[in-house]
Amino acid sequence: MAGCSGRTQRAPGSLLAEQQQEPALSGDGSKLAVIVDQRGRPTVQLKDLRGGGRLQLRHLNGQQPHSSPSLSWNGRYLAVIIQRGNRRLVLIEDRLNGRAHPLRLPSGRYPVRLSLAPDGRQLAVQTADRGRWQVELLDLSGLLEPDRRGGLRRSNPAEPQP
Amino acid sequence: MTIQWPRLAALLLGLCLIGCGPSGLRPERGISSALQRSSDSRRWPSMGNRWLASIASRNGRERVELVDLRNGQPVPLPGINQADAQPISVSVSADGNRIALVRSRDGRTELMLYRRGVGLLQRLPVEPAGVPREVSLDGSGRLLAVQVSRQGRWDVDLIRLP
Predict the structure, then answer these.
(1) Residue A79 — left, alpha, or beta (φ > 0 → left; ψ -120 to 50 → alpha)?
(2) Global ipTM
(3) Triad B124, B48, B134: Cα angle to 5°
(4) Nearest residue, CB atoms, A138 vs list B27, B113, B154
(5) Structural domain harbouring A68
(6) What is the pLDDT of residue B8?
(7) Closest Cα of chain A to B128: distance in Å?
(8) In a domain, B37, yes or no
């Protein structure tokens, strides 16, 4: 087994007091989602790795704790597990057109961990079923436009790109 | 032409029940069932384009597995699973060629990169020293985000890979 070295840097925010967990990169490597502790509530933050700074998320306030963020190729879609009342739900925020898609799993199970396909057309969800972890695969092609390598499709040309 | 409303309504209802779950979400039951049948338990999903990496348990032993979603079959990953190692987290590149993982072996927690094309598992150094926990590869497999514990706090390192 050979060794392999890479060039390491800290993610933006790591040098501050803020701790960061559950990292998720966009497919193009331009954005990073992390879970930070915000006044005791695990909250997702989205960082722009190329321009620096934080990117706004519109639909997640008041629905903490957040967990298991996942991004599509250009970071148009952010999927994350949220809390609504006493239920854990998957929420996908479309940063291009500002829409939110709260999803209850057809199986009726609670989501534990997510992974969004790079093009945003499929979602893998870890759930618990009779004491066993399982992975369910969901087709999102009836819900989301693809977010593919090489650019974004604009649902509404008047809106700014993420 | 006479429109037969009851038949039309029944047809539309039937199509909706067969085709789509809530909000345009459609479970991929064939693949999900195959995933459940092929393991006792499965966790930590990571999606590429048409690839699903996960940690599957059979007979009490956990292994990293990569499934080709075009046919639902796992592909060989020679050398990635070792008898004395326990996988902790996993992430796959968009094309399924690179898999990053954190594993526990001989009482140590190691950050590893597997390149499927050459069947090579390499250890990645964590610098400054720390204990890795979660990984996220970008689509190209050339940028890796790692959650690392250092002196009681969680950081996220970004590692550019050759």
Answers:
(1) beta
(2) 0.87
(3) 40
(4) B27
(5) 20-139
(6) 56
(7) 9
(8) no
